[in-house]
Amino acid sequence: MSAPTIPKTQKAIIFSEVGGKLEYKDIPVPVPKSNELLINVLYSGVCHSDLHIWQGDLPLPLKLPLVGGHEGAGVVVGMGSNVKGWKLGDYAGIKFLNGTCNACEFCEQSFEISCPHADFTGTVHDGSFQQYATADAVQAARIPQGTDLAAIAPLLCAGLTAYKALKSANMRPGQWVAISGACGGLGTYAIQYATAMGYRVLGIDSGEEKAKYFKTLGGEVFIDYKKSKDVVADVIKATDGGAHGVLNIAVDPRAISMSTKYVRSNGTSVLVSLPKDAVCESEVFTQVVKSTSIVGSCVGNRADTREAIDFFTRGLIKIPIHMAPLSSLPQIYDKLMQNEVVGRFVVDTSK
Ligand SMILES: NC(=O)c1ccc[n+]([C@@H]2O[C@H](COP(=O)([O-])OP(=O)(O)OC[C@H]3O[C@@H](n4cnc5c(N)ncnc54)[C@H](O)[C@@H]3O)[C@@H](O)[C@H]2O)c1
Ligand SMILES: [Zn+2]
Ligand SMILES: [Zn+2]
């Protein structure tokens, strides 16, 4: 491929203060560092974490002004002098974990997210809500040529995180996974990964539309948390003793604490969602006698990314996405705040 013409400026959504105006405007195209790719981002998923970051919910350092977004899928159009193993025209994905040192004890053991030198997209590194973004060439996701880039964009956080959280629940095929927050972005991917991995899926969320959607994606039992009089009892009854694994995706600390009550003896409750200042309460006596585990799970490493993409490439993950122009991001944030998004929004950066 001959070198593409790279413009000097591009469209982006950028904000200058926490909770401040989300401006759709022209900003300079970034220049890749020696270790980085320059990716023409065509599509980006919109994660609830982007909303948390903009609202200042998470105790993370931020660069300001900031371009958010960490589910970018696009084409390599440039690269720094030290990049190996990539060529212009390759498909590449931008993830939350933008870059790592590859030398510390955590990187050495593939716990890349724990790298003390990690660089994070959409917090301290401008993200995928722009037409051109940079990503470390080692961490950037490799997307097979010919992939539908709009459809794969949400895999780079929602799909990857859901898949890794299921691995963290340490279950066997045939066992029950309860997905709390089953019909938002991460939840819908979790339903299909769980089904593909051989688990039985119980979903907790609310509303007729979400209940129907849950079944079309392969879910088995749906509990509407707004209608149920006792979610804990309902989960225990439906799973004949409690869920072997729980994925806490609902942005609600009460729902997270509840999971410690309906997880089965010897099962695992996985913490994924990040409600502001949340605390997970677990009764010590119950947890001790049931020998349950509560574990945190954050995105995934490069191997998890490759595996998550492989499920998609084999046609096992088919989530209908909502397409919208990048300029409509503020309206998408409004819908996320109201729990109105069924599945995932993907923005087209050309509009
Ligand atoms: N750990 C990680 O690596 C990681 C990665 C990505 C996102 N996240 C976090 O995961 C959370 C979910 O992200 P998302 O993009 O899927 O959000 P989303 O808004 O698309 O989905 C959340 C879903 O939870 C449902 N819900 C709300 N309250 C509920 C309750 N009490 N019980 C059951 N369901 C309830 C909503 O109706 C919605 O469908 C966010 O906090 C996000 O920051 C964590
Ligand atoms: Zn995310
Ligand atoms: Zn490291």
TrEMBL record:
EC number(s) from the headed UniProt entry: 1.1.1.1
SMART domains: PKS_ER (SM00829)
SUPFAM superfamilies (alphabetical): GroES-like, NAD(P)-binding Rossmann-fold domains
Domain annotation Enoyl reductase (ER): ranges: 19-347
GO biological process, one term: amino acid catabolic process to alcohol via Ehrlich pathway
Catalytic activity: a primary alcohol + NAD(+) = an aldehyde + NADH + H(+)
Family, similarity comment: Belongs to the zinc-containing alcohol dehydrogenase family.
The protein's name: alcohol dehydrogenase
The organism of origin for this protein: Kazachstania africana (strain ATCC 22294 / BCRC 22015 / CBS 2517 / CECT 1963 / NBRC 1671 / NRRL Y-8276) (Yeast)
